[in-house]
Amino acid sequence: MSTETTDKIYSVNGPVVTVRDTKSFAMQEMVFVGEKRLIGEVIRVSAKETTLQVYETTTGLRPGEPVYGTGAPMAATLGPGILDNMYDGIERPLKRLEEISGAFISEGANVPSLDTERKFEVTLTVKRGDMLRPGEIYATCPETALITHKCMLSPLSKGGEVVWTAVTGKYTVNDVVCKIKDEYGREEELTLCQKWPIRTPRPCAERMPMSRPLITGQRIIDTVVPVAKGGTAAIPGGFGTGKTMNQHQIAKWCDADIIVYVGCGERGNEMTQVLEEFSELIDPKTQRPLTDRTTMIANTSNMPVAAREASIYTGITLAEYYRDMGYHIAIMADSTSRWAEALREISGRLEEMPAEEGFPAYLPSRISEFYERAGYVKTLGGSEGSVTIIGAVSPQGSDFSEPVTQNTKRFVRCFWALDKALAYARHYPAINWNTSYSEYTDDLSAYYKNNVAPDFMEVRQQISNILVEENSLMEIVKLMGTDVLPDDQKLLIEVARVVRVGFLQQNAYHKDDTYVPLEKQYRMMKAILRFYNLSVKALENGVAADKIMSNGWADKLIKIKYDIPNDDLSMFDDYEKDMDEWYKNAEVV
Amino acid sequence: MNIKYIGLSEINGPLVVLDKCKNVSYDEIADIELDNGTHRLARVVEVYEDKAVLQVFEGTKGLSLKNTTTSFEGRPMEMPLSDEMLGRIFNGAGKPIDGLGDIVAEESRDINGEPLNPVSRVYPRNYINTGISSIDALMTLIRGQKLPIFSGSGLSHNKLAVQIVRQAKIADEAGQDFAVVFGAMGVTNDVADYFRRSFEETGVLQKVVMFLNLSNDPIIERILTPRCALTCAEYLAFKKNMHILVILTDMTSYAEALREFSSSKGEIPGRKGYPGYLYSDLASIYERAGIVKGAEGSVTQIPILTMPNDDITHPVPDLTGYITEGQIVLDRNLDATGIYPGVAILPSLSRLMKDGIGEGYTREDHQMCANQLFAAYAKVQDARSLASVIGEEELTAADKAYLKFGDLFEEHFINQGFETNRSIEETLDLGWALLSTLPRNELDRVDDEHLDKYYQPEEAAKKFAVHKA
Fold it and tell me: Tens digits of per-residue pLDDT, A525-560?
């Protein structure tokens, strides 16, 4: 880091700062701006003028103040201590910032991303003479009670032979624990941490097909529009439709090893809520608080806009780092629209030619670059890991034809469209089953067949068919009421109601209903279909429609989600037996 | 650093350009003195090595390239603060206009504030009982929340805000101090006066700080008004440990001022001509609500905005809804049928409600009652639209029951009048009584245990029949 510089600020306009007549900066180099050493990044270079974006507020900055280059791009520090932590958009730990500057964040606070005092119990996994290649693990340490941190040789390194290792014991992140020598005899010291430029995807050995679902315990997601581990999903919805709520539910319950939660330009109170709730919630599988497997990036809407732009990249870099250790990561980005707006804001200040609605022309390519960093991979170290991206989109005016939603739709394979009408009726999750889709169903069908039930996909299809048919009938019903329909269609509408209210609607505040295992989801669908098929047959056999509709089974099925606990699915057998009984008797009479 | 610069090199709307100035910092405040001895306040919005662009708050009327002397103050816009501010009236830029003289400052703060660290926030959980059934039951206001009122021209948003101030038990059980900070942006004299009189009648005037930028005041000053109001609120809340309710009206005028400023600066416009940073800018206002660890006080915000043409997808309500923790939407049809407050139940929402209600806060059945009321009222809308097509007679018995429920709900629950103050028990009991007019099997959001306790159709029938007669 140079301390002498002749480069001076020429102009300041919000977060955009320019320097004239200099050739000392590289694109995307990290810089320190002004006497307060605000953190910034080079975003445009020309012979005459270099443009910087500053990640902190520029109030008080004046032309003539110095600009210091660092010679390196914006990088995240990766090492143990990331989990159970909350960062701002440029990986500054917010708890440390609080200690330094109090409840309000003041500018120029330069703090290390990782706790440099904390000691970890490190076990070396290599010995002298071993060859260490990029991405291979040389040390492990327990990071939280749940997650073992694996220190890997950075993919930027050439690799080499291990010439020295520290003894197993307690070390801080900056202690040298291993030394390697490359083929030219150059020595490299390895600590517990490494740096990685946030805008560059971390490499992997190969991308693998996605064949396992990310199980969320949310019925509509798992059965109707599933997402694969390593896949991409978008949740678009106007305000109040439950984007954040859905993200929270998935973060709490999905079967990923680690959650990266990026609050990008969203509410401060929401991040506080995540922090509080996750430290109180105990993961049923491991009996540990959820924060043990979570890291959070919080760049709330009132924090500097340039750091908001960076927060998405910081988040995905952290996710990729843990993926390289062989973990499955789910990253929640709430919301990508705020990130796109940050792009627009900076682009506007640069006086770039705008494309649609003032967004820069490179918006689609930035969105695709981000979503392409998801994937199920074989890591350089030889294990398997995945990054699943779930991005919320906040369309302006709830209009899905706006540029961010449309461009996101092109690059994600799973689209969970939230519906205002459903949200108004407090039907949560307000995912509209007619407009949402998942392109992963074919890839995942083998998993469901082998792990849940052989006929899972058929059952799922029958349920979908009922909803599709209801949708076309509703057009008539809206005009003329249900009375004009023939009995079999009335029955279908009644069954569709059971599917909607009893199956798709899910109560996040109910102890059993907040997370439902796949097995129970399957049994619920089976029970509803049994009701439908028996009723159809009974109709054919001349049982009066009114009698069937008022037999109480519809309401019983709707309450199944509360009445049958997740851990006693044998109760379904009793339900089915009773149901068969009723229909047998009905037909006899 | 008292260099004075004579003259200007360009004037464009509220912006002036000053050439050959040195050592000017971004966001710094400047004082422009005119020949006739009057002063105007300006802020640096862009700065170059030898040039600065300034935004003049009181407007550029009468300015020429020659008749001014500009001096820079070397600091961002600050305002003097002390608890003497209670009961005082200021203009939109934070200058006293009640003739009682300047504030003796205990401290000065940058009006832009600094972003609150998310880890220093305390998640708001204590509910504020406003005494208004529709709000308390269905979109509960929580201390430290930002809950805007989305309204339209001619609707009773001001009346509702006054009723909330009057009835809300803002002070906590310990009788801790509360105060109201009122920021008016581009409202008429009448409206400002209405608020002032209402505060007086309620007897809280000594607890109110007013910042008035009226519709005939300089537009650019409007950009400062909410920031001054919130700086004052933060000071009183976090330094003086008071519970502060901030009312900001009208945020649409504020956004329009921002648009005017942006376009005169030649910025690339976003939707409907509003600047691309409208979201960030609104967030820098709304996010200043909350509770901070270690401080006893809180800042609760009720911004009021009028939706142009009642359009909730207009950029201002749209972006506001994405930042605030819910919204109270007023409905023109309800208002027209004489229902006060005409709160549109379905699009209204309080995001913090779920954690601030129930056992220990309001009553254990609150959530269930609210869910069922929402669901039932949503079905009322379906039944009504069906009835308008096929006629009421053709409806099924259930749909007819919903129609009846809808009318009763609007008449008794939503419509409560300006003077009525209902406790949370009264409100919830009324909600259950209304739900009891529906067939029991329609109440699918309530479990049997609660139904057994609260579902009382006979009494409900009696109660509402009596009311009708």
Answer: 999 999 999 999 999 998 988 888 888 899 899 989
d(CA B415, CA B135): 12
How confident is the model at residue B44, as a pLDDT?
A: 93
CB atoms A269 and B121 under 8 Å:
yes
- Dist. CA A552–CA A540, nearest whole Å: 20
Report the side by side order of strands in the sheet with A187-190: A131-132, A160-165, A178-181, A187-190
Euclidean distance between CA atoms A297 and A87, whole angstroms: 5
Strand boundaries in B251-342, DSSP class E? 298-306, 326-330
* Per-residue model confidence as pLDDT tens digits over A137-185: 999 999 998 899 999 999 999 899 999 999 999 999 999 999 999 989 8
Q: Which candidate from A94, A478, A555 shows the least CB-CB separation from B119?
A: A94
List B278's β-bridge partners, or say none: none
Interface contact flag, A424 B120, Cβ < 8 Å: no
Whether A147 and A94 have beta carbons less than 8 Å apart is answered as no
CA distance A452 to A464: 18
Rounded CA gap, A367 and A274, in Å? 25
- Rounded Cα distance, B111 and B96, in Å: 16
B321: which chain A residues are within 8 Å (Cβ-Cβ)? 238-240
Its pTM stands at 0.90
Using the Cα atoms of residue A356, residue A357, residue A360 and residue A362 in order, give the sign of their dihedral: negative
User: Which residues from A are below 8 Å from B294, CB to CB?
Assistant: 103
- In this prediction, residue B219 has a pLDDT band, given cuts at 50, 70 and 90, of confident
What number is the ipTM of this complex? 0.84
DSSP string computed for A185-202: --EEEE-S-EEEETTSPP
CB under 8 Å to A107, separation ≥6 — which residues?
A36, A38, A56, A57, A59
